[in-house]
Design a protein that fits this description.
Order of helices and strands: EHHEEEHEEEEEHEHEEEH
EC number: 2.4.2.9
Function: Catalyzes the conversion of uracil and 5-phospho-alpha-D-ribose 1-diphosphate (PRPP) to UMP and diphosphate.
Pfam family, one: UPRTase
GO molecular function, one term: magnesium ion binding
Cofactor: Mg(2+)
CATH class: Alpha Beta
Radius of gyration: 18 Å
Bound molecules: 1-O-pyrophosphono-5-O-phosphono-alpha-D-ribofuranose, uracil, magnesium ion
CATH architecture: 3-Layer(aba) Sandwich
């Protein structure tokens, strides 16, 4: 496996993901499970965050204690489905700023179409975690990362729930400098660009559309 790809295959994540895949799981449960998995994945995605020692006083004595350095983080969901991963991450990194990139995949060409972009003004200084549950052809993620780089972003991680091997390859070819975190790498893409076995259309399942 490529060193830039981490599969976070913790049993809790795999269990929750299996419930999400089930066609009988409704939007409420789907959203809650996605939020829970995002929190669990965030724990691993932030594993290399730096700590520093600061002086504090406990009720017993003064001591040095480890705290996160003032690292600036931006969470950037790819709309719509990426929104479902934001709240879980904000629970663990409450000081993070949130940028939004609106892309939809044209169902005929499978190419991403951009319709919105609003990022924190100091995006170039921030460690960025792009979120999207589905990495299929990789077109949407690669475009979102390019957009971020065009605005000066340097330090970018991509966090997805399920990836197709084709999507991982495409993103790493377009952006060799990024790290990808996924809960599972599925088998392949079908003729309509859907991940097999996958979980269907993540945006539709989160928001109850279709
Ligand atoms: O890797 P790709 O082939 O580009 O496909 C993945 C993209 O497709 C889905 O979004 P969709 O276009 O369905 O938009 P939505 O989130 O608004 O439903 C998904 O959330 C990704 O953004
Ligand atoms: O399987 C897929 C592929 C693209 N987008 C989704 O939501 N699901
Ligand atoms: Mg969709």
């Amino acid at each position: 496996m490529d060193k830039r790809v981490t599969v976070i295959d913790h049993p809790l994540i795999q269990h929750k993901l299996s419930i999400m895949r089930d066609v009988n799981t409704g939007s409420k449960d789907f959203r809650e499970l996605l939020e829970e998995i995002s929190m669990l994945m965030c724990y691993e995605v932030t594993r290399n965050f730096q700590l520093e020692e600061v002086e504090i006083e406990t009720p017993i004595c003064k001591t040095k204690a480890k705290m996160l350095t003032g690292k600036k983080v931006a969470i950037v969901p790819i709309l719509r489905a990426g929104l479902g991963m934001v709240d879980g991450m904000l629970k663990l990194i409450p000081a993070a700023k949130v940028g939004h990139i609106g892309l939809y995949r044209d169902p005929n060409t499978l190419k991403p179409v951009e319709y919105y972009c609003k990022l924190p003004s100091d995006i170039e200084e921030r460690e960025i975690i792009v979120t999207d549950p589905m990495l299929a052809t990789g077109g949407s993620a690669a475009d979102a990362i390019k957009l971020l780089k065009d605005k000066g972003a340097k330090n970018i991680k991509l966090m997805c729930l399920i990836a197709a091997p084709e999507g991982i390859k495409a993103v790493l070819e377009a952006h060799p400098d990024i790290e990808i975190y996924v809960a599972n790498i599925d088998e392949y893409l079908n003729d309509h660009g859907y991940i097999v076995p996958g979980l269907g259309d993540a945006g539709d399942r989160i928001f109850g559309t279709k």
